[in-house]
Design a protein that fits this description.
By secondary structure, the chain is mainly beta. Helices cover 6% and strands 41% of the residues. The chain contains 1 helix and 11 strands; from the N terminus they run αβββββββββββ.
Length: 179
């Protein structure tokens, strides 16, 4: 005998496999003291997002865009870190050499050609977290950190001039990739 699917069982099946995608957009701007990696934050917003995985063996695709103002030709260095529940943030998918300085462990290094305090760029980058050790029901929080390798300020979503010069919005989005 074959049983027909009910509306409820179809909905439960579709809900189980629909994309698990979370996103945070930061549209405020800030200037951060950034001698070394700093969390990209404003007075009320942080470039971070939390996801609750549907499965205990998934991987995660992380897409980001970061608005960075330019002071002089420089390198913008960006990375994503993650934590499970209330644990400590950790690096992933980057150099793990013991001799490497913390500032040499990153996902994106962008060389900016601009040499004016009124220019900014939106820098896209992606990362992939595979084989994380977590359980169903845990939460994973991802955050973006950055610094410039030539100056000690990070102009986040703004230019050095601040004022009415170009501004941007930055985002981080995380998608669970089911196994």
């Amino acid at each position: 005998p074959t049983a027909l699917a009910t509306q409820q069982s179809i909905k439960a099946y579709v809900d189980l496999y629909k994309p698990n995608l979370v996103r945070t957009v930061v549209d405020e701007r800030s200037s951060l003291n950034a001698s070394g990696f700093k969390d990209l934050t404003t007075a009320t917003q942080a470039l971070e997002v939390t996801i609750t995985p549907k499965f205990g063996d998934s991987d995660f695709k992380i897409n980001c865009e970061v608005g960075a103002g330019n002071y002089n030709p420089m390198h913008v260095v960006l990375r994503v870190q993650y934590k499970i529940n209330n644990g400590s943030y950790q690096n992933f998918d980057i150099s793990s050499e013991a001799q490497s300085a913390d500032t040499s462990k990153f996902h994106m290094q962008h060389a900016s050609p601009y040499d004016t305090p009124s220019e900014m760029e939106v820098i896209p980058f992606s990362a992939f977290l595979a084989d994380a050790s977590y359980s169903t029901g845990d939460t994973l929080t991802f955050k973006v950190q950055g610094f410039y390798d030539t100056i000690d300020r990070f102009y986040f979503n703004r230019t050095e001039n601040g004022g009415d010069f170009p501004r941007s919005r930055s985002f981080i989005e995380v998608q669970e990739i089911y196994q």
